[in-house]
Design brief:
The protein is of the alpha/beta class. 39% of the residues lie in helices and 9% in strands. It has one domain: 3-Layer(aba) Sandwich (Rossmann fold). The chain is built from 6 helices and 4 strands, in the order αβαβαβαβαα.
Length: 224
Amino acid sequence: MDTPLLCICDDATFWPWHSWTDFNARPGKGGTLVVVPVVGIADWGLGSPLDLEELVLCSVLSEASANRGDVPLLVLPPLRFVAGSEPGCAFAVSPPVACALISETVLSIKSSGFTRVVLLNSSPWNEELCDAVARDLRIEHGLQMFCISMSGLGLDLHPVRGRDRARVQALFAAITGNPHGQAAQPAGVEAFESASARLASLLREMHARPPLRDAGKLGAAAMP
């Protein structure tokens, strides 16, 4: 029987496809980037399904993962139940619950021996939340945290601020296929290639950052 897909992913870097013996023998855990996708479930008024964010973000991430170069990378399945106070949001949880979910996920990553974590967020309503969680995890647990939002990849879904909604819609059409069997439109292909290349570049840049000093411990002079 075929194993059902957990999400769109690059098989080589997908965390669930590795056994505990793989993790036990894995070298260089301290230099490995672990990506946690954070995706909302919402109706964005673009004529697309509620899992638009996941389909777009995970497709871009899968392509970026396959073209990341020599960056040691692992990717978790997306966290789907996050904050969202707007009417179009579905299955949203309160900000404290979302913070706890992200924190517990990252701390489980730490317990497996990894210390460099990327929160890759698709939802405009979770950008500040991801930044706050990453800051707290850095301070309290010495983790090297990075945050990337889909808006920073030229795919901003914000209904007021965002000017990329047409690009997201075109990209979605390109990755899901045209029901009439026509080729994907150039705008959708360009948006996909641009976003995935930008993400791959950011992953390489993060990998090049030196590790935190003193295992991430903050000195007395750095404390408030």
